[in-house]
Design goal:
The complex is a heterodimer of chains A (about 290) and B (about 325). Chain A is α/β, with parallel strands linked by helices and about 290 residues long. Chain A is built from 12 helices and 8 strands. Chain A has an 8-stranded parallel sheet with strand order 1-8-7-6-5-4-3-2. In chain A, helix 9 links the parallel strand 5 and strand 6. In chain A, helix 11 packs parallel to helix 12. Chain B is of the alpha/beta class and about 325 residues long. Chain B folds into 2 domains: about 120 residues, NAD(P)-binding Rossmann-like Domain (Rossmann fold, 3-Layer(aba) Sandwich); about 190 residues, Dihydrodipicolinate Reductase, domain 2 (2-Layer Sandwich), CATH 3.30.360. Chain B has 10 helices and 14 strands. Chain B has an 8-stranded mixed sheet. The longest helix of chain B has 19 residues. The chains are: A alpha/beta (about 290), B alpha/beta (about 325). The interface between A and B is large, with 51 and 48 residues. Bound molecules: nicotinamide-adenine-dinucleotide.
């Protein structure tokens, strides 16, 4: 994985601290061209991986990328599925069975429902596989070396003790997409323990990691201990602690943590994008220098 | 360990179940839902004791406490059965379909001496907790007016019918959505006990209201406005906010950001004269397990700790939710007048 990864929250008005800022972002990124322009700024700054939700609008971005193969030949996308609001709204409307009927392709479910209530456990894992395929459709022909499960789902399954689904997700991503599975979580220590129990070694995990102890369930100390053990390949997200920490301080902290392979960040302006990239590179450079001296 | 059972593993229930499952002091005694598919998945993958009949579940598994997360019309009947068995109860909001039922349950819970809580999670949001502290501390001076707002994209097209589109089942924007901000105002300022005018409007729904606009007041006569619309797709998700105006200052707060203006030097520690902005990041409680907002974990934790006797059962009691049902009732009655 590249050291710096570009995220998509700013494009879809996901702002953890201010509704006003969210609205400003919705206006700014109303057109796909504005998203592409920002992605191009990130690429110019040397960031070639885009981590994004399987939001409907990403399908348009994928089209643009597919239609410009030369421009984007180095470009990678890390899809994060599912776009939970889509399913949550559908469940409100159609119920759980209705939602599955709507989103699971083919007549698989039809035949399953015909079988009355005699479900086999395996069928639920197959439903998950079909849902993954449906979410992955928009990325056809695009380089997606790592595919993530969103934190709402990862953490929901974690709390429910349904590690089987997490393990099955990882296996299917490997087998079908020849890619690595990743898990986004707000509960890094607990998730890592459960994944290891399920037989997944050294998983890719994207977690909230910041100086402010923001969304680090179990606390910063436990996080730092877990991170220092090097049991997973980590992407740090929410490094600014939802805006609680000034960027220079936040980036210095996370750049210097051991075993953090990548840093995920999002920004809308050229200045913020370039600044973030330069700051991380500066700290990495300093760290290497110190290592060389030692 | 506290033995907890769940009735209703739908959208809200499954979230409670996950938070309970990760809670170090909780043992899941059983789960009940009438959907065979939900039960089948939970049985196979979580290994819980699953039931389709809640009476059978509580009689067999003998839980200390039960979470009720079924559609609102069932709350009264089920909670009553549970209280009569001396079980601690956490029920989803709104409490009941009418304040008469809420009153009966409030009294029954008091008689039985069991822990009782309703799922108005906003009271566990860091910014709103701080708003309450500032208002109750008198830092805004005398309150003169308030505004409670909530907007979001729940019903944004004409659509199929669910329990949410049936006024007799607790559907509609007033009961299902506006109840949150009404409850919040009741807690931060004082219970709304008068409605001078209200409009319940349908926008896309056939038989229920999609928006609520009401001019209200509290016991002391302080006035307020409630403005809620669940058919507003310019919001990505529900956005709840309160504005509180006093003689010495003013607060504008949502779940993320609290803005407060102090006119004089009478401001609390950590603030200054003029505008101040605080973010939920510095106000949120740390939780042991995060699923979808600290407040959802915190409210369950509060319930469990109340059952264990570690904290007092004072937040979101049946009594407070009964008052909210009364306020809802007033606004509904006034809209028909
Ligand atoms: N606090 C909040 O923000 C919030 C959000 C959503 C819902 N709620 C409240 O939670 C409650 C449930 O709402 P929801 O959105 O989860 O609804 P839902 O329809 O998704 O879930 C209800 C579940 O209850 C089950 N059920 C119905 N009748 C039952 C019975 N007799 N016995 C056992 N199970 C039964 C259904 O099968 C379903 O799984 C409502 O009171 C609602 O107002 C609160």
């Amino acid at each position: 994985m590249e050291r710096i990864i570009f995220g998509d929250n700013q494009f879809f008005a996901v702002n953890h601290i201010s509704d006003e800022k969210s609205r400003a972002q919705s206006i700014k990124f109303k057109d796909d061209a504005a998203i592409i322009k920002t992605l191009d700024i990130a690429r110019e700054a040397g960031v070639n991986t885009f981590m994004c939700t399987t939001h409907d609008r990403i399908a348009n971005i994928c089209n643009i990328i597919r239609n410009n193969p030369e421009k984007y030949h180095d470009f990678k996308i890390y899809p994060c599925m599912p776009y939970a609001h889509k399913y949550a709204n559908a469940v409100t409307d159609l119920g759980i069975a209705g939602t599955l009927k709507q989103y699971v392709p083919g007549n698989f479910l039809g035949s399953m429902f015909k079988g009355g209530m005699a479900y086999l456990s395996k069928d639920y894992l197959s439903i998950m596989e079909l849902l993954i395929d449906a979410e992955m459709k928009m990325f056809n022909g695009i380089n997606t070396p790592v595919i993530f499960l969103q934190n709402v789902i990862t953490d929901l399954l974690l709390g429910l003790g349904m590690t089987d689904f997490l393990v099955a997700f990882a296996k299917y991503i490997e087998k079908k997409y020849n890619a690595e599975a990743g898990f986004i979580t707000m509960n890094l220590p607990k998730l890592l323990n459960e994944l290891e129990k399920g037989g997944i070694k050294n998983p890719i995990i994207c977690a909230s990691i910041n100086k402010a102890n923001f969304r680090m369930s179990g606390g910063k100390e436990l996080y730092e201990k877990t991170i220092s053990e090097g049991r997973c390949r980590l992407i740090a997200m929410q490094v600014l602690g939802g805006g609680a920490i000034p960027a220079p301080e936040a980036l210095e902290y996370v750049s210097n943590l051991p075993n953090v392979e990548s840093i995920l960040f999002g920004a809308s302006s050229r200045q913020n994008i370039e600044n973030t990239v330069q700051t991380i590179k500066y700290h990495d450079f300093k760290k290497e220098e110190q290592l060389a001296i030692a | 360990m506290v033995k907890v059972a769940l009735i209703g593993a739908g959208k809200m229930g499954i979230s409670h179940l996950s938070i309970l499952g990760a809670h170090p002091s909780v043992e899941i005694a059983g789960v009940c839902d009438t959907s065979k598919m939900v039960i089948d998945v939970l049985k196979n993958y979580s290994g819980y004791n699953c039931y389709t009949d809640y009476i059978k579940m509580v009689d067999e598994t003998k839980p200390d406490a039960v979470i009720v997360a079924v559609p609102t019309k069932f709350h009264f009947k089920m909670v009553k059965e549970l209280l009569n068995r001396n079980i601690h109860v956490f029920t989803e909001k709104p409490f009941c379909l009418n304040p008469t039922e809420s009153q009966e349950l409030t009294e029954l819970a008091r008689q039985k001496g069991v822990v009782n809580q309703v799922g108005y999670h906003n009271k566990f949001v860091g910014t709103f907790k701080e708003v309450k502290k500032l208002v109750k501390g008198g830092f805004l001076g005398e309150i003169t007016h308030f505004l409670g707002e909530a907007y979001g994209p729940v019903v944004i097209k004409k659509k199929s019918d669910t329990w949410r589109s049936d006024p007799n089942e607790g559907g509609g924007c007033l009961m299902d959505y506006a109840s949150h901000v009404i409850d919040l105002i009741n807690d931060i300022v004082a219970p709304i006990n008068n409605c001078k005018g209200s409009i319940l409007k349908s926008i896309y729904s056939k038989s229920v209201d999609d928006s609520v606009y009401a001019l209200v007041s509290i016991e002391s006569g302080v006035s307020g406005v409630i403005s809620v619309n669940w058919s507003d797709e310019t919001y990505r998700k529900m956005s709840t906010s309160v504005t509180i105006i006093g003689t010495e200052g003013k607060i504008v707060s949502d779940a993320n950001e609290l803005k407060v203006y102090f006119r004089t030097k009478n401001y609390p520690e950590g603030y200054s004269k003029g505008w101040n902005v605080k973010y939920v990041t510095e106000l949120a409680d740390e939780v042991n397990f995060y699923l979808r907002g600290e407040e959802y974990s915190s409210q369950i934790d509060h319930f469990i700790k109340s059952v264990q006797g570690q904290v007092n059962n004072t937040i979101n009691t049946f009594e407070s939710a009964w008052k909210t049902d009364q306020s809802i009732h007033l606004i509904k009655e006034q809209s028909l007048a």
